[in-house]
Amino acid sequence: MGRDRKRRTPARGNRARVISLSPKDALCERLAAVGVALRVLLVQHTPEAAAVEEVFYSQNVKTALKLAHVRGVVLAAIAEAGVLLGEYSPLSVKSSVVGYGRAEKSQVQLMVRTLTGQTIESEDAADALAVAICHATRWKAAPVKIGGAVR
Description:
Distance between the termini: 18 Å
Strand order of the largest sheet: 1-2
Protein backbone atom coordinates (compact mmCIF):
# COMPACT_ATOMS: atom_id res chain seq x y z
CA MET A 1 0.00 0.00 0.00
CA GLY A 2 1.40 3.41 -0.90
CA ARG A 3 1.91 5.89 1.90
CA ASP A 4 2.17 9.61 2.26
CA ARG A 5 5.50 9.83 4.09
CA LYS A 6 4.62 13.06 5.91
CA ARG A 7 1.26 12.09 7.38
CA ARG A 8 1.84 8.36 7.87
CA THR A 9 -1.61 7.59 6.52
CA PRO A 10 -2.60 5.55 3.47
CA ALA A 11 -1.87 7.56 0.34
CA ARG A 12 -4.89 8.65 -1.65
CA GLY A 13 -5.59 7.14 -5.03
CA ASN A 14 -4.48 3.62 -4.17
CA ARG A 15 -6.95 0.81 -4.68
CA ALA A 16 -7.16 -2.47 -2.85
CA ARG A 17 -6.23 -5.41 -5.00
CA VAL A 18 -7.04 -9.05 -4.42
CA ILE A 19 -4.81 -11.78 -5.79
CA SER A 20 -7.32 -14.18 -7.32
CA LEU A 21 -6.47 -17.87 -7.45
CA SER A 22 -8.23 -20.94 -8.75
CA PRO A 23 -9.03 -23.57 -6.13
CA LYS A 24 -8.50 -26.12 -8.90
CA ASP A 25 -4.76 -25.36 -8.98
CA ALA A 26 -2.41 -27.28 -6.72
CA LEU A 27 -1.49 -25.58 -3.44
CA CYS A 28 2.14 -25.16 -4.51
CA GLU A 29 1.01 -23.35 -7.70
CA ARG A 30 -1.27 -21.03 -5.73
CA LEU A 31 1.51 -20.24 -3.23
CA ALA A 32 3.91 -19.49 -6.08
CA ALA A 33 1.31 -17.22 -7.71
CA VAL A 34 0.85 -15.28 -4.45
CA GLY A 35 4.61 -14.87 -4.11
CA VAL A 36 5.06 -13.64 -7.68
CA ALA A 37 2.10 -11.24 -7.53
CA LEU A 38 3.21 -9.78 -4.19
CA ARG A 39 6.81 -9.33 -5.36
CA VAL A 40 5.55 -7.46 -8.43
CA LEU A 41 3.45 -5.16 -6.23
CA LEU A 42 6.39 -4.56 -3.88
CA VAL A 43 8.61 -3.56 -6.81
CA GLN A 44 5.92 -1.37 -8.41
CA HIS A 45 4.95 0.50 -5.26
CA THR A 46 8.15 0.36 -3.15
CA PRO A 47 6.33 0.68 0.18
CA GLU A 48 8.27 1.70 3.25
CA ALA A 49 6.19 -0.67 5.40
CA ALA A 50 3.72 -3.52 5.15
CA ALA A 51 1.29 -5.09 7.59
CA VAL A 52 -0.21 -8.53 8.05
CA GLU A 53 -2.72 -10.00 10.42
CA GLU A 54 -1.40 -12.49 12.95
CA VAL A 55 -2.54 -16.09 12.80
CA PHE A 56 -5.82 -16.61 14.58
CA TYR A 57 -7.43 -19.70 16.06
CA SER A 58 -9.37 -21.73 13.53
CA GLN A 59 -11.77 -24.64 14.04
CA ASN A 60 -10.75 -26.09 10.67
CA VAL A 61 -7.16 -27.36 10.82
CA LYS A 62 -6.84 -27.66 7.01
CA THR A 63 -7.88 -24.02 6.57
CA ALA A 64 -5.48 -22.87 9.29
CA LEU A 65 -2.59 -24.74 7.66
CA LYS A 66 -3.31 -23.27 4.23
CA LEU A 67 -3.49 -19.80 5.75
CA ALA A 68 -0.15 -20.41 7.47
CA HIS A 69 1.40 -21.44 4.14
CA VAL A 70 0.19 -18.27 2.43
CA ARG A 71 1.27 -16.14 5.37
CA GLY A 72 4.77 -17.66 5.13
CA VAL A 73 5.02 -16.76 1.45
CA VAL A 74 3.85 -13.20 2.21
CA LEU A 75 6.29 -12.75 5.11
CA ALA A 76 9.16 -14.07 2.98
CA ALA A 77 8.39 -11.69 0.10
CA ILE A 78 8.18 -8.72 2.47
CA ALA A 79 11.47 -9.67 4.15
CA GLU A 80 13.20 -10.19 0.77
CA ALA A 81 12.11 -6.69 -0.27
CA GLY A 82 13.56 -5.22 2.94
CA VAL A 83 10.22 -3.67 3.85
CA LEU A 84 9.40 -2.92 7.49
CA LEU A 85 6.68 -5.20 8.82
CA GLY A 86 3.85 -4.67 11.28
CA GLU A 87 1.83 -7.61 12.57
CA TYR A 88 -1.52 -7.14 14.29
CA SER A 89 -3.99 -9.44 15.98
CA PRO A 90 -7.56 -9.55 14.65
CA LEU A 91 -8.62 -7.91 17.93
CA SER A 92 -6.20 -5.00 17.35
CA VAL A 93 -7.37 -4.55 13.76
CA LYS A 94 -11.04 -4.42 14.78
CA SER A 95 -10.31 -2.09 17.70
CA SER A 96 -8.37 0.26 15.46
CA VAL A 97 -10.97 0.39 12.69
CA VAL A 98 -14.28 0.07 14.56
CA GLY A 99 -13.33 0.90 18.13
CA TYR A 100 -14.46 -2.49 19.39
CA GLY A 101 -12.27 -5.61 19.21
CA ARG A 102 -15.18 -8.03 18.95
CA ALA A 103 -16.85 -6.19 16.06
CA GLU A 104 -18.64 -8.20 13.38
CA LYS A 105 -17.15 -8.49 9.90
CA SER A 106 -19.96 -6.34 8.48
CA GLN A 107 -19.12 -3.53 10.94
CA VAL A 108 -15.46 -3.62 9.91
CA GLN A 109 -16.42 -3.49 6.22
CA LEU A 110 -18.74 -0.53 6.80
CA MET A 111 -16.02 1.41 8.62
CA VAL A 112 -13.43 0.60 5.95
CA ARG A 113 -15.81 1.95 3.28
CA THR A 114 -16.47 5.03 5.42
CA LEU A 115 -12.80 5.72 6.17
CA THR A 116 -11.51 5.13 2.65
CA GLY A 117 -14.41 6.52 0.66
CA GLN A 118 -13.98 3.53 -1.64
CA THR A 119 -16.37 0.86 -2.82
CA ILE A 120 -14.88 -2.34 -1.47
CA GLU A 121 -15.38 -5.17 -3.93
CA SER A 122 -14.72 -8.15 -1.67
CA GLU A 123 -14.45 -9.23 1.95
CA ASP A 124 -10.78 -10.00 1.39
CA ALA A 125 -10.09 -6.47 0.15
CA ALA A 126 -11.96 -5.01 3.14
CA ASP A 127 -9.94 -7.20 5.51
CA ALA A 128 -6.65 -6.12 3.90
CA LEU A 129 -7.61 -2.46 4.07
CA ALA A 130 -8.60 -2.86 7.72
CA VAL A 131 -5.11 -4.21 8.48
CA ALA A 132 -3.58 -1.29 6.55
CA ILE A 133 -5.69 1.22 8.48
CA CYS A 134 -4.66 -0.40 11.76
CA HIS A 135 -1.02 -0.21 10.71
CA ALA A 136 -1.30 3.43 9.68
CA THR A 137 -2.74 4.36 13.06
CA ARG A 138 -0.56 2.19 15.29
CA TRP A 139 2.84 1.81 13.64
CA LYS A 140 5.70 3.60 15.32
CA ALA A 141 8.36 4.65 12.84
CA ALA A 142 11.30 3.47 14.95
CA PRO A 143 14.49 2.34 13.20
CA VAL A 144 14.47 -1.43 12.64
CA LYS A 145 17.40 -3.57 11.57
CA ILE A 146 16.65 -5.38 8.32
CA GLY A 147 19.26 -7.31 6.38
CA GLY A 148 22.15 -5.69 8.26
CA ALA A 149 20.99 -2.12 7.60
CA VAL A 150 19.09 0.15 9.93
CA ARG A 151 16.03 1.72 8.31
